[in-house]
Amino acid sequence: MMFLKTLCLPLLFTLISLRSCFGIDSYTEDPFHVDFRRGRAYRRPISYRPYVRTFGHVPNIRNYRNPYSVNRFDHNSGIRARLDRARGPMTSKMVNVDDFGAKANGRDDSLAFKKAWNYACSSSQGATMVVPKKKTYHVKPINFSGPCKSPLVLKIYGTIKATTDHSEYEGNGRRWLYFDNVENLRVEGGGTINGNGRTWWEKSCKINKALVTLQGSANCKLLHLLCVVFRIWPTCVNIFSSELQAVTFNECTNLRVSSLRIKNAQQMHLIFRECVNVNAFNLRVKAPGNSPNTDGIHVTGTQNININNCVIGTGDDCISIVSGSKNVRATGITCGPGHGISIGSLGAGNSAAYVSNVIVNKATFRDTTNGVRIKTWQGGSGYAKNIRFQNIVMNNVSNPIIIDQNYCDKRKPCRKQVSAVQVSDVLYQNIRGTSATGVAVKFDCSQSVPCRRIYLQDVALRAEEEDSAQASCANVRLSYRGDVSPPCSSQN
Ligand SMILES: *[C@@H]1O[C@H](CO)[C@@H](O)[C@H](O)[C@H]1NC(C)=O
Ligand SMILES: *[C@@H]1O[C@H](CO)[C@@H](O)[C@H](O)[C@H]1NC(C)=O
Predict the structure, then answer these.
(1) pLDDT tens digits for 90-131?
(2) Which of 102, 231, 388, 465 could form a disulfide linkage to 109, CB 3.0–4.6 angstroms apart?
(3) CA of 123 to the centre of ligand 1 (A)
């Protein structure tokens, strides 16, 4: 029982405390306002490829032009101005990890990284911390803590590789590179962050079902038992399947993360948690399609974030957006393999969840299990609203368009519950391509809290192999514009 309390209760409190993010609400734009009055004024997509020409080589960020420029983010000129400040002063100090004793010889370089960070972070004239190219540095879990005295740039030219000593992670909240409470930070350089995750994947409770049942590790068995006995499985799933994090930015403000390869994370690759004003672009995130829980980019409790021009292929969601997130824009995303772009899961363990103002624009999915998905657990509360999915190409995607309000990550079906996270004001616009299954559009909404104001405009999805694609629609209030195929045969 003690064990249960120490693990599950803090999580519940975290979920509950996310509520407070919504007290200060100045954002009022209706994302449908413009497009729906413009009717068919959209362009046909062929394929949306991220702009990667400058990947790994963005010598002068001022000349960098992004074709899906953040300027187009209608409400973010303020964000942009603030991000400009994150560029750092011209006279900044160079802080090379090698000068602090990093050897890149296969032994642990954590101490040198830590010292270099502390030095850079305490510089009052701005600093650039450099991880030199063509070298591989092995590091244990590290806290890169702020606040720092002035704007900081972390230039990763070489490779940072994670230790596989699992015990090192226990004291660190199961996080590897943890940037905490830093303002005006840029992380860039074209280098690689390698989570070295294989040993973790093999141990995962999810991948190795035997672990959960009989022969498995004590931790998996105990957790499973507690979760079943106390019927708080959803909460538990979050605890032991989502916690290991490769690169986390926690409570960072005016942050830019760009031109990096992030691969083979222990579980999640890149996490933005409770951050404000984030620009993430030119990122390549890669892990095998069968690696468990390796979300590409996870956004939680974060406001004003642009994710541009990213190529993401992992064993879980390419991008997942969960509670407390607001004003999220993902543009020019290539996703696959993986589970697609998800809002959720929301409302696990009867929690309240709030996600609003999300735009996914210009994305290409290939061989993913989902395209654009909203998933909520039964029994939750709160909302997911003002969401636009537009200009999207699906290639052999199992569930191209899906809202699942009966989400259940469990072998036995979840208990029926009446409350639900309200899903409303969702626009699907100009979405084309193929479905790997016969059901291309699925709205499985809650009977008691139906999905409302769901708009479909110019949707053309056909089945990759079967003769015709179907839409499966339950408890959803829909409007159509333009040609929509497949349509819901009956609405209720
Ligand atoms: C990192 O900070 C957390 C608290 O935020 C602390 O619990 C942990 O021990 C620190 N880890 C390291 C390696 O310093
Ligand atoms: C589509 O995806 C399925 C698995 O989801 C795969 O078996 C099939 O070969 C794929 N088809 C094509 C044409 O790529």
Answers:
(1) 568 999 999 999 999 999 999 999 999 999 999 999 999 999
(2) 102
(3) 22
